[in-house]
Amino acid sequence: MDEHVVILIIALIVLFYGFISKKLAQFDISGPMVFTVLGLICSPFGFGITAVEVNAEFVTVLVEIALVLVLFSDAALLDLKLLRRSWQIPARLLFIGLPLTIIAGTAVAVWLFPEQPITYMILLALLLTPTDAALGKAVVTDPKVPKIIRSSINVESGLNDGIVFPIVLTVVALITSGLTKANDYSWIWYVAEQIVFGMLVGGIVGYLGAKLLNKAIEHNWIEESYQNLIPIALAIFGFYLAETLLGNGFIAAFFAGLYIGNTSKQARIHIEEFAESEGELFILISFFLFGLAFVPLTLHDISVNVVIYALLSLTVLRMLPVIVSLMGTNLDFASRVFIAWFGPRGIASILYVLIVVHNVGDIGGFDIVYAVVTLTILMSIFAHGFTAQPFSNLYSKSHRDRP
After folding, report:
1. What's the pLDDT at 273?
2. Which ranges of the chain have pLDDT less than 70?
3. Relative to the CA of 42, which of 185, 219, 230, 313 has its CA 20 to 30 Å away?
4. Domains and CATH numbers, the chain
5. In angstroms, what CA-CA distances link 224 with 61, 201, 205, 206, 217?
6. Taking the CA of residue 220 as centre, how many other CA atoms within 13 Å lie in the half-sphere pointing to its CB?
7. Are 76 and 267 in contact (CB under 8 A)?
8. What would the pLDDT profile of 130-142 be if each residue is shown by its tens digit?
C-alpha cells in the first residue's frame, strides 16, 4: 500500500467535496455518500488507483483516532440534565429497544446462516445495533421536527455505541479465547479489566481535565484557539493511558467525554465546534477507507441470504423493536415509525467491525459477518441519506407544533 497516495487522494476529495458540499446537499447527497463512492472508485474494484489492506497499521491508527473522537464527542455532547428531564423515550429505546434488536438480529442470523457458530451471529447482531444520527443529519438538525423527536434520536445514537461496545468486547474475547472448543474462562477476567479500568481511567482523566480546564479559563491562562484542542488531547491521552493500565481506551474516551461535557460548559462548546470540523474530517476519512478497503473485500461473499439479512436489519429488525419499545408513550404511530426508521448504520458499525478485523481477522468463518455488515452499512448510507430531508419535511407537516 502506498500510504502517501492514499493521503493525497483524501486531501483531493476533501477539496472537491468542500467546494461543492452545499450544492450537493440540495440534492440530498451527503459527505458519507461521496467519500464511500469515491473510495470504491479508487479501489481495485473500481479504477484500481490504489489499494489498502483492511488490517494495515495505517488504517488501524486512523480508525482508532476516529472512534476515540466519536465516542468522546458523543458522550460530551449528551446533556445529562436535559436527559433527566425527558428520559422516558431515550430510556425505552436503549433499555427495551436495543436488547430486543440484538435478540431479534441474533435469532434471524441463526435462521439464515445455520452453519455459522452462534457467537459469530451474536457478534453480527451487535455490530449492526449502534445507530449513526449523522447519516440522517437533516432529521436531528431540522427545527421543523419536534425537539423531543430530534433529541431522542440523538441521545440514542450517542449512547448506544457506548453501551454495545463492552458487549462486543466480551463476544470477541469469547471467540478469540476458543471458549467454544475449550474450558478457558480467562476471557471473563480480561473483559472485566477492560471495562472497569477503562471506566476508572476515563473518569479520572475527565475529572482532572475538567478541573484544570475550568481553572485555566477562569484565570484566562489559555488562548482561545487551544480551547478546541485541549479536550481532544485529553480524549487521546485517556485512550492511551487506559490501554497502558489494562483498561479499554475506547471506554475511557467515552467516560472522559461524559464527565468533561457535563462539568465544563466552555469545554462542551469547543468540543461541539471540533466535532463539526476536525472530527467530521476523521469520520469522512473512515467512510473513504470503508469504500476503498472493506467493500471490495467482501463483495464476492454477498449472497441472497446476505441481502435478505441486510434488508431486514434496516427495516424489521430495527423498526419493530423500536415501535414495541415506544408503546405506552404519548407518541402517535407516525412518530414511532419515524424514530424507528432513522436508525442508520454508519460510523460506529464501520469502526467496530474494523477493530474486530484487526483482532480476529485471521480466524476463519467471518466472511459472512463482514459481508452482511458491509452491505447493510452501504445500503444505510444511501437509504437514510436520501430519505432524511424528504421524510423530515413530510413528518413535520403534521407534527410541527406537537409537544
Report:
1. 79
2. 1-2, 178-185, 187, 361-365, 400-403
3. 313
4. 1-397 (1.20.1530.20)
5. 29, 27, 22, 20, 9
6. 0
7. yes
8. 998 777 777 877 8
